[in-house]
Amino acid sequence: MEKFRTLFQHFQSSSESVMNGICLLLAAVTVKLYSSFDFNCPCLARYNALYGLGLLLTPPLALFLCGLLANRQSVVMVEEWRRPAGQRRKDPGVIRYMCSSVLQRALAAPLVWILLALLDGKCFVCAFSSSVDPEKFLDFANMTPSQVQLFLAKVPCKEDELVRDSPARKAVSRYLRCLSQAIGWSIALLLIVVAFLARCLRPCFDQTVFLQRRYWSNYVDLEQKLFDETCCEHARDFAHRCVLHFFASMQSEMRARGLRRDTAGGSPEPLEGPDGLDGDGSRKAHLRAVSSREQVDRLLSTWYSSKPPLDLVASPGLREGGLNHRAPTVAPGARLSQHTDV
Amino acid sequence: MDKFRMIFQFLQSNQESFMNGICGIMALASAQMYSAFDFNCPCLPGYNAAYSAGILLAPPLVLFLLGLVLNNNVSMLAEEWKRPPGRRAKDPAVLRYMFCSMAQRALIAPVVWVAVTLLDGKCFLCAFCTAVPVSVLGNGSLAPGLSPPELARLLARVPCPDIYDGDWLLARDVAVRYLRCISQALGWSFVLLTTLLAFVVRSVRPCFTQAAFLKSKYWSHYIDIERKLFDETCTEHAKAFAKVCIQQFFEAMNHDLELGHAHGALATAPAGSAAPGTADGAEEEREKLRGITDQGTMNRLLASWHMCKPPLRLGQEEPLMGNGWAGGGPRPPRKEVATYISRV
């Protein structure tokens, strides 16, 4: 398990590493899936092509969608795309960068499947055995066209009685597998050349813009994660207070009914109880005012509809009316940041 | 598992060690790929040579380019090549060193593939089966009776035992043994040649320009480590920025809601008492921000990193960005320089 923890920590170090890790995992799952899948060509004239091409193209589509699902950043990207501009303007370049990085990683597993299928050859042989030109093979000279078609349809099935131990079947199968492998290697070569050129030539175009977009896309991802964590913390404190509040109010209700003879507290108790039991002032800090369902809902909808501007020194108010009242509390904040400058 | 962690950390220590690790893995993967790959000679006269040449040459090219793509130094090399000189001169020797070290490592997996292919012999057999000297190995007297296309069609089936029908002309085993023998001889010669070349390059290099080589190696490692540290610092900064942003958002919400309450104990709850609790945490986060607190400044910093890298001279007080720095003064640059000193 140590091994996994080290690998896990390495991949957690940044959001890009996490995405790369997920990508590799999905590629490994694809390889395992392909090797354990039991290919079963129907060997019937019209169904062969359907089965072969279906198996070549449907699992990659499913794997592509899985790749998008497994990647948190796809959701973050869509949220960033659809949010109202509010106090923070949207940068289409950042959204495009996130989109392209998500798509690239999601395409890895489907391509692995397609390449494996082509290099293995079974799919291709099954799909195109009926489309082979019989003229190429001398063994079909003395067969009628319908016989030839029947024969060709059964080529993918080695154990079928009609084609068992037939040199013609082996010749056709070999020819198709060879073609399939050639196509597979050509696609692999093309992809790798494209990837290499993209990697080499990227710094020649707009490197500064690229650095900026990479930073801000990482920022958006981190901010979303931190916001979720802060909300979780808030929810925990909220629940804690709620439960303590409930117990304290039960206690005071019982006192009020006279079931206990001790001197009763009145209204202060429900408030003091939770406060006294808490003992951790800083945790309650963000619960002070946001302590009801409507307020939490309002906080969350404000986060979506009007994200704060990317400017920590001058933080404008969330509502116009609050601006004057907030001026005294903003000033210490601004002074704090200037202290750190100096 | 400590051993594993040590190895992992050692390999991660710099890009070159990491690439050595990747190189080894790719060489093993190359051999594994060859054994998993089902070689499938078409046994047709025109197609044999094309298929064999493809199998001998395309996968090595793919492996070579993959080795380059996986190497982060490729984009680093391109960046270093294309960046404006700014205040840091570019050294072509460093670029050459980086390119050579990348190419050398990327060549190992293709060499393994070619060596394994030749030593195995199937590829060579498939390519040259039509060129076998029938007169020497088989019934030479019967050969002239066949037309060349007919002979070619017959010999093309030598690699495929289940469809070969030319035993009367040439025993299949004889041809296979002959071609495999040549293939293995070529394979071993290739291995010997490459190892000899690598040995000569490695031993002879210190005789030429060793001092310049040491300098290039140092500065190439430096550029790699600097880039990694810059990325880590940016990530830390982004985290701190996000934390402070969210804290301010929650505080602003608090104030808004508190001011909205006309009555109630919550309205009288002193915000000041909450402030010290959160202020310590906020203070620490603001430290990490190193004075860069808005989007425009961060963008300028990132642009300046590429357009005008700082000079390789620590302890200077020149402003980083000249007139463009709205914050004024050398304070933030000095902070960054101090960080570098303490880290290195």
Account of the 3D structure:
Chain A: GO terms for molecular function: monoatomic cation channel activity; voltage-gated monoatomic ion channel activity. Chain A: It is found in: Membrane. Chain A: Belongs to the CALHM family. The complex is a heterodimer of chains A (342) and B (344). Among the domains of chain A are: 16-200, no CATH class; 202-249. Chain A is mostly helical and 342 residues long. Chain A has helices at 2-12, 15-36, 47-70, 72-82, 92-106, 108-120, 122-128, 145-153, 167-201, 207-256, 268-278, 281-284, 293-305, 322-341. Chain A contains 14 helices and no strands. Residues 264-281 and 316-342 of chain A have low confidence and may be disordered. Chain B is mainly alpha-helical and 344 residues long. Chain B has a domain at 19-209. Chain B is 72% helix and 0% strand. Chain B is built from 14 helices and no strands. Chain B has helices at 2-12, 15-36, 47-69, 73-82, 92-120, 122-128, 134-137, 148-156, 172-204, 210-260, 265-268, 271-289, 295-307, 331-343. In chain B, helix 3 packs across helix 6 (122-128) and helix 5 runs antiparallel to helix 9 (172-204). The longest helix of chain B has 51 residues, at 210-260. The radius of gyration of chain B is 33 Å and the shape is elongated. Mean pLDDT of chain B is 80; it is low at 262-277 and 321-344. Classes of the chains: A mainly alpha (342), B mainly alpha (344). Chains A and B meet through helix 1, helix 9, helix 10, helix 12 and helix 13 of A and helix 1, helix 3, helix 4, helix 10 and helix 12 of B.
